[in-house]
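#dry-run=false #mode=assembly
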Amino acid sequence: MPHLSVSTNPQSKYCPVWLICVILSLSVVHTHASDVLRVPQQVTLSTNFKEQQLSISWLGGAATTFDIIILRTELNITVFYGTVSVPLDQVSGLQRWNWTSAEPLECTSLSVKVRSRDGQETSEWSNTQNLQGSDLPSNEQSQIYPMNRVVPVGANTTFCCIVKEGQEFGYIKYGNAVVNTTRLSRRSYATTVVNQGPSHQSGANVVCFDSLTTLIVGAVVFVGYPPLLRDFVCETHDLTSAVCRWNVRDPKLYGRRRTKYTLNMRNCLDEYEHVPQKKCIVQQWEGNWTLLAVNPLGQYRLTDSAELSHRVYPVAPTKLRVDAHAWNATVHWQWKYSSYFTLGLVCQVELTCHGIIKNFTVSGVGLQSALLSKLQPNEDYGVRVRCGAQQNFWKWGNWSQPLYFKTKTFVPDPPDLWMWINEDNTGQVVWKVPLNRQSHGQIIGYEVTVWSREENVQHTHTFPPDAAAAAIDFTQIVTSSNDTKVTATVIAKNNEGSSQPASMVFRLTETHTVAVSRTVYENSGFRLSWQSDANTTSDYVVEWHDSACSRNCPVEWIKVLTGITNVTVDSPNFQPGVRYTFSLYSFSSEGRQLLQRWQGFVQELVPSSSVLLSASQQDTDVVLTWSSIPQVNHRGFLLGFNVYNSSGSELKLIANLTDKEIRSYTVKGLSEGTHKFTVKAYTSAGEDSGATASITLEPYIDWLIFELLTSLGVTALFFIIVTFFCYKKRKWVKRAFYPDIPEPKLPGDWSRTQGPLDVKPSSHSIIQIVEKSDQDSSKEMLVVIPEEDEDEEEHGMGDEPVDTDEPASLRYYNQVIDERPIRPRYPDSSTSSASSLDSGRTDVTYTGIQTSGSSLVFQLHPAGSSEDQQPPIDVIDSCSGGGGYRPQCNNAHVASHELFNEPQAYASGGYKPQSSWHLDSPTEAGEVGGLAPSLGSPTSVASTQFLLPDGERHEEEKQASSSASTWFTNLLSSSKP
Amino acid sequence: MAHRRSRHISVTEPSRTTMTRTTAIAEQLHYECCVLLELYKKKESFTTDVLVADGRLVTVPPPSSQLDTTDKLWRLHSALLQCSSLLEIAIIKEEEELGGGKTGDYESQRKTVKERLSFLLVSMGELRKAVDGSVSLTPTLEGLKLDGPTALFELKLWIYRIFEELDYWTKMVISTLQGLSSVLAKERARTTRMRSTRNARR
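#status=ok
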């Protein structure tokens, strides 16, 4: 600080001053620095328990930034530590800072310290200031905070429970739920309930329990909404006072916490705190209104302003009274306020009759009555009235209480008259019983008059009130005149008098024939339309009735005014499935005239009955015929018939007949057997249940005969062709099938005499085939019979030597073959021969094997049947060695032996028609040898048994072939010149 | 009450009828009290751990076998009268603090109980009159703490205790009157026998 140096120059007299200034300035700076970081003094605490707010004030000098620490005294837990900027309160010279505690301040004691801060520099902490909680030992009782708190919906609230000294804390329940808790001090425990929902009317309970689940203490918290209002409006009923109304949202706060309302600073009594519509009455119309709603959670303000004449909301008229007449009435009422007498009013009169509402509007100053016109006599009405201001209409007032009255009676209207005439000129005058609006009172009777000019006599009859028809007989009138006009008149009567007469003129010679067309029922009824007749100036009548009815029908009708050419007819009497006939008449003073006729159904149904069905056979066809269904059973327009074949399990449609007049149908191409047919009539609604007929088809005789003749013709033709062919080719056939056998050279005419012809055939020609026809049993046949059989010789002679190489002599007979059953022809050979049985065909006689054949029937030599006898082996050799056709081979014994003992050899033998038979048993085989001697006798045995060996069908076929070849042979032989 | 004990008790036929009617009303009230208690517990979400017995609100002389019928009836009448006073105050305070005007099941049942209690009190008065001849000694309400607690939770518990108190004393009325009926029946039978014996001796 060179400038602080002392100088002796003239200027030096200023140096002490300068120095003092420097010193003073340094002193000021130092003083300022020590003043900024001064320790806060006079720290004081003040509380707002309801808001849980702690206000801390202190003397902090010039500092504006302070550190504040708040601790829970008992457990020394910091609940707040922070640096805050607190401006100096110029008035008090104190710094003040508010802190809101999460817990109620009563929960536990708090300690507060403050220090000044200047950047990083801080002063010392102030002295600790304590806020005493309610958990001090001196306060021994159990407590809970906050009590009776009101909080908004969605708030978080911390509750603390201070247990009694010496008591052990257990848990806290909010409502019925146990909640988590935090220990604040030795006796204090807290819990925080977050996002609280609206509580019910008596609030939500917060209850503390000790460790023994014994209730310690409880509190109630109310969770609701601040006020919210709308639709605030003020009106006047009496033209003096104001009635202000508004709607509120339910704040969920009731009782002591309910919302309180003031209107223009005057309290409004809210008697019904649960009702959302509120009202408040101000005795004088003020023009401007301010509504203030206040509850513990807030307040809401609404305003309204209007002139009185613009807010007239009339009260309901009172003391209604009616002066009723037959056709009109006057309704009177009174006003509650005399101020209405000078008020221009518009009023609505609502008239109700049988649920039908009519409104009349009348207006006038101080209106107190209204005329109701166009009423019906003897009718019940209800009336009520409401009004509004005619000028500056605001809204309709309230309806008055309804008043019910009845108009007076009056003479009836003329009845609605109609006429039904039967074909026999009887009929009835019909009329509609008047409705109440037509009778105008209780009907006491009707007077019906019938009059004709020709007769010139009025026939008048009186009928009771429930009558609606009067039978009439025009038979006598008709006989006197061909074209009689009759006038019918009906008068209805009640206590007020008689109606005007209802008259109708009609002719007894009305025509009833007119083309009938169809009409369809639509949603609202049958729509009928017709061509307008320019010449007709009369009204129309549409009449309808059940088409099935023909005499004194219950008829309905409506009148149609002139010029109208269509009408929709509906009736509560319409029934589905019933055909209705609608007739359009024009009527005038000259009578009525039938113009048009329709028929239709409200709803078509399936026919209620079926046809009567019958079936008959016609050649190979079946003709179905059925009757018609009675029209009353049609229940719809018949569209046709469906014909089904119902022979199987399902109906098979075979014809759809769209011609409803058709009554028969022919089913063709049927096979023999039983057939069932079903015929169903159908309408647009579907088919009826159907009628079924059954028929069994017999064979067609003509066709049978034709078939038989045809087959016979074909067969005959075939045989002719074959015969012709064989005849033409007989040489070839003979050469191929039957080569020539040398004829025996015998003297004389051997063929004419009956006697044996001994020949010496070769050893392989011992069998001769004889063909015999049934139809020609007398035909002479050449039978070849072996003179001696080898076996016979062997077995029959016993000890005689056998010479198999010697050909046996054959004896031929041109005898007649007996067609009778097997029988002996000769005593010797009767047992070894049998006749061929009649088969209707060609018989073949195997003479070469007759011995065995006869053994089946007779037994002449019992000794020869010994089992010891064996067939000669060498005979087998003579015909063995291969198959093929060997008609000359006599191996009967071999065959029989082989069939019995060596079936394998037989099977490999090939076709052996002459040796294919076999014996039935070994015993029988043994008999063969015993019968052998008879072979030499002139015996012929015919037997079919040999052609059908047991169990060998193919052999049977071979035998047949053999028979055919024999036949050919005979044919060729007989045909040989 | 010593002077009342010395009185002669004569049970007439009308008193038996009144006793029967009073018993019937008490039984009906008992049932309605049970319903009211259930509705209140449901309304306040009170569970069993909340509802603990905490002494009687009604103060009457202790029961004793030395009490005669008149004193027994007086005791019951006094208790019911206190219950009625407590109930009225409970209703007023409940509506004042917690709101009224609602017409729920609880409010309807509370109204029913209040009216039934009035009938029972009237009937008890008639019974006492029939038995004792007069009801000059009307039970007093002295000593009854009619100002409920200020804390709402305590108020709720207090209201519940009033309902319980009413239920308790209704049961006491029923049991006492039933006991009296049997005693009176025995006395009547004994009197009848004595008269028969006396008439026979004559």
